Amino acid sequence: MARYWLMKSEPDAYSWDDLEEAGEGTWDGVRNHRAKNNLQAMSVGDQAFFYHSNIGREIVGIVEITEAGLTDPTDETGKWAAVKVKPKTKLPHAVSLKDIKEREQLQECELVTQSRLSVAEIEPSEWSIILSMAGI
């Protein structure tokens, strides 16, 4: 069964447009144990929201996991995880963190409860609500 995720990136370092231009990218550089566990739990075909952190603070697109279970190529110790992703859909309307926080049904979303987490799990009900907010 496919699962849903949210992956944060600072757009001045790696943006949605950068991923679209590349066609596929490696999600690496994560150094938080909960985020690592989320990366390790991903399967090929899972989908994730692409979230611009710091600048914008909004969900801008959907990516699909194309390779899972990778060791982070930027980690010399071999302890950290990575996945490959490809852009699937740019959202018709970006969904801001402010708008997410204002939705009662999203108060338990990991994006809200663990705001510093760079790779978060999204429940199917949360996924549907956020898609609706984006105009999908």
Q: N- to C-terminal separation?
A: 21 Å
CATH architecture title: Roll
Order of strands across the widest beta sheet?
A: 2-5-4-3-1-6
Q: What is the third-level CATH name, the topology? A: ph1033 like fold
Taken from the alpha-carbon principal axes, the silhouette is: globular
Question: What is the count of β-strands?
Answer: 6
Given the helix and strand composition, which structural class is it?
alpha+beta
Task: Give the topology string: H per helix, E per strand.
Answer: EHEHEEEHHEH
What is the highest CATH level, the class? Alpha Beta
Q: Strand percentage, roughly?
A: 35-45%
Total count of helical runs of at least 4 residues: 5
Describe this structure in words.
- The chain has 136 residues and is α+β, with helices and mostly antiparallel strands.
- It has one domain: ph1033 like domains (ph1033 like fold, Roll).
- 27% of the residues lie in helices and 36% in strands.
- It contains 5 helices and 6 strands; from the N terminus they run E-H-E-H-E-E-E-H-H-E-H.
- The protein has helices at 16-22, 33-41, 97-102, 110-113, 124-134; strands spanning 4-9, 25-27, 47-52, 58-71, 81-96, 119-122.
- It has a 6-stranded mixed β-sheet.
- A hairpin with a 5-residue loop joins strand 3 and strand 4 (58-71).
- The longest helix has 11 residues, at 124-134.
